[in-house]
Amino acid sequence: MFKMVLLILVLTVASWLVLKLISKPMHIGLVLLFWIAVVFGSAGLLYGFSVWQAGL
Which of 16, 31, 36, 44 has the smallest number of Cβ neighbours within 10 A? Predict the structure, then answer.
């Protein structure tokens, strides 16, 4: 779990810096929420798919 949180924080800071560099500033909280949704949503989809496959 700690690795996932660390990954989210690194992706948030990197994305926020890239957005600043291309002159499209965005609140860092929105970027953080985006990456939380992406990482946990992907994990949930993969888990659901694996459970579905195991049931077949």
Answer: 44
The token pair at 5 is: 């949180």
Place of tokens 């779990």: 1
At residue 24, φ and ψ (nearest 5 deg) are: -125, 65
- Reported as a single tens digit per residue, the pLDDT across 9-47 is 999 999 999 999 999 888 999 999 999 999 999 999 999
SS3 readout for 20-45: HHCCCCCCHHHHHHHHHHHHHHHHHH
Query: What is the Cβ-side half-sphere exposure of residue 1, based on CA atoms within 13 angstroms?
Result: 0
